[in-house]
Amino acid sequence: MARIAVLPGDGVGPEIVRETVKVLRRIGALFGIPLTFDEEIVGGAAIDRCGTPLPPETLSLCRASEAILFGAVGGPQWDSLPVDRRPERGLLALRKELGLYANLRPVKLFAPLVDASPLKREIIEGVDLLVLRELTGGLYFGEPKGIGPAPDGKGEQGIDTLSYTTFEIERIARIGFQIAAQRRKRLTSVDKVNVLASSQLWRRVVAETAREFPDIELDHMLVDNCSMQLIRDPRRFDVILTENTFGDILSDEAAMLAGSIGMLPSASLGDGPGLYEPIHGSAPDIAGQDTANPLATILSAAMLLRHSLRHESAAAAVEAAVGLVLEAGYRTPDIRQPGPTTLIGTAHMGDLVVERLSNTAIH
Ligand code: IPM
Ligand code: MG
Fold first, then answer.
1. Ligand 1 test: best mutation among 91, 107, 297, most atoms within 8 Å of CB?
2. Please, what sign has the CA dihedral across residues 191, 195, 200, 201?
3. Domain 1-108+264-363 shares a fold with domain 117-258
4. 91 in ligand 1 pocket by Cβ < 6 Å?
5. Which of 34, 53, 123, 363 lies 20 to 30 angstroms, CA to CA, from 95?
6. What share of the chain is helix, strand, coil (3-state, %, to 5)?
7. Ligand 1, atom 1: nearest CA belongs to which residue?
8. How far apart are CA 47 and CA 14, in angstroms?
């Protein structure tokens, strides 16, 4: 029995997670995968109920589960809280506590969405890359961190520290090479070696780790150049390996290659249970309106089936069902495009994926 911890969170989180659980229940039935679902609170919802974004019960449920399905956290009502007490802290603490250092963000353009992106068809057609973001180091967690008195006695000083150790770089680099080996065998390591000490170590350690993987073609790229190349010639990329903050920014940028940030799933992996979440946020402005795109979360569930449950055929069936629904012209508002398409809501999109699954999965 595979136990799935379900953490809907805030904003559109509950709606998109609801549709995804529907999909997982159906896939479990179709493929004979016994799944159980246990729901807990996280983020702003948890702050409101018990004063902390990651209650101990939520963390222990996650530890006791095979995988975690996560919605989104945050919203304007918690914006005035200090950073260390905001809803986002719940997600960051979960990543850190569970040692989820490897964040996989595949960016694959579904062919029917080629005209949904604001970018030209000639540039993005066939895009298929993966951003591998280091998730438990860098500016997000480095010490010292915080706001204190400014050394010049005038006002305050805010500090974040960008730090990486050999160990941290080596383990994420290894994952990068292993992923590249399963794909087109190209790894681009992204850094800011011309300015940052942590990048100098990063580049050196990645280059040394590359010796274990002679079949993989490695190149290094500066992050500012990478952000340009992603728009200029995105098909040149296979796996992009990068540190935490660069990966956060580059993956939002890369999302537009796939039509909408509402299409991008992610898997966060470490040595214990994996966490699966859309890369987008809680979108409080459209929460509760049945307009959010649930596909990023549904595709995250496909990654859950692939990476945590090792059920490749079930994962592929979910992805195929999503493809069929898009091919049939159904669109949530974020992927709306000119031409003969049908505008639908969150729940309808979930239902259609379930329906296509039932029609195709067994064959
Ligand atoms: C992401 C998000 C998070 C991050 C936020 C919600 C803390 O932007 O997963 O990309 O910065 O990592
Ligand atoms: Mg982000």
1. 91
2. negative
3. yes
4. yes
5. 34
6. 45, 20, 30
7. 279
8. 16
Q: Which CATH number fits domain 117-258: 3.40.50.720, 3.20.20.190, 3.30.1360.20, 3.40.718.10?
A: 3.40.718.10
Please identify, by atom number, the ligand 1 atom nearest to the C-alpha of residue 91: 7
Global pTM?
Answer: 0.96
Q: Domain limits of the chain?
A: 1-108+264-363, 117-258
CATH number (3.40.50.620, 3.40.50.300, 3.40.50.1970, 3.40.718.10) of 1-108+264-363 reads: 3.40.718.10
pLDDT tens digits for the chain (363 residues)?
999 999 999 999 999 999 999 999 999 999 999 999 999 999 999 999 999 999 999 999 999 999 999 999 999 999 999 888 899 999 999 999 999 999 999 999 999 999 988 899 999 999 999 999 999 999 999 999 999 999 999 999 999 999 999 999 999 999 999 999 999 999 999 999 999 999 999 999 999 999 999 999 999 999 999 999 999 999 999 999 999 999 999 999 999 999 899 999 999 999 999 999 999 999 999 999 999 999 999 999 999 999 999 999 999 999 999 999 999 999 999 999 878 899 999 999 999 999 999 876 554
Nearest one of 274, 355, 336, 250 to 30, comparing CA atoms: 355
What is the distance between the alpha carbons of residues 204 and 168, in angstroms, rounded to a whole number?
13
> Using a 6 Å cutoff on CB, does residue 248 contact ligand 1?
yes
* Cα angle value 69/31/112 (rounded, 5°): 70
